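Final report, closing paragraph on structural work. Over the funding period we assembled a curated collection of sequence-structure pairs, and we close with a single example.
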Amino acid sequence: MLNNNIILTGKTVLITGAAGFIGSNLSQSLLSKITNIKVVGIDNMNDYYDVKIKEERLKKLQQLDNFIFIQGDISDKIIIENIFKKFNPEIVVNLAAQAGVRYSISNPDAYIASNLIGFYNILEACRHSYDNGEKGVEHLIYASSSSVYGSNTKIPYSTDDKVDNPVSLYAATKKSNELMAHAYSKLYNIPSTGLRFFTVYGPAGRPDMAYFGFTDKLVAGKTIQIFNYGNCKRDFTYIDDIVEGIIRIIQHAPERQKGTDGLPVPPYKVYNIGNNQPENLLDFVNILQEELVTAGVLPKEYDFDAHKELVPMQPGDVPVTYADTTPLEKDFGFKPSTPLREGLKAFAEWYALYQK
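Its predicted structure, as stored:
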């Protein structure tokens, strides 16, 4: 296991996408667990999905001490520069991104603005945090995605695999983030760690994700479409496991060192964070419906078979996601482990309250 080389006590952490699903949970966990930590959150509060959910997450955060919120877009370079000048963050966690595979087919501009230009602005701000001999950013952590594995057929997906076959613009932007971070780590010695998340789910999650969308449709009496005739497999990862993984990784920045040429060896790492146990989509739907009935979201006599339709694969999707988490276990003594039923039970219980 790696030893921690960053102490979070008393640090200022910038979290982009702070009103998002992962960003809000990470912010809350840091503020509740770490003494005297300050979290500066930025989010553009866009309407890609129901803004009310983002507002509810934000309301909880604003009740906590040492949380500062700025509404703005990371694609606005001046806003990012001003945040760095005012708050001098030692840790930067970039979770702001336009998400969604299918949305990238119809709305590519949003992905270029947020995922490429926005991330470039973050990298530039990190680079200039070292100006005039300042200590600057100690660790940049950024969200990548399991989507970068694209049409790879070898499973489980390893961070050693080549990822040159994206099947969506979303995946291409996430791979671009990894390449950009590598270049900046090499050129400016910025310790950076990319995290490839695998199908994150849980209470107050993203409504565009399958489990949430399925629930909305079933409640409304609509038919849900199960792609690839139910033969898809996903490595569903519970939100608490994702947050635990991020916090552990934050505390060890890749070491700065010089190569034989006297130039910096990029202090750069990439990890998978997934449950390491892909679930068949039909099994997933069966567990979801059972937990929705138990939580009282759906009646016991609900006819699920009448509300399910098996359909072909959608463009941009992949049949399987499956994380090799060996490096995460080796370096941090941790792997996601929340069983799917336990996670979906927590979601169903939250949804029962959310419905009211």
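The chain has eleven helices and 15 strands. Residues 82 and 105 are 33 Å apart (CA to CA). We thank the funder for supporting this effort.
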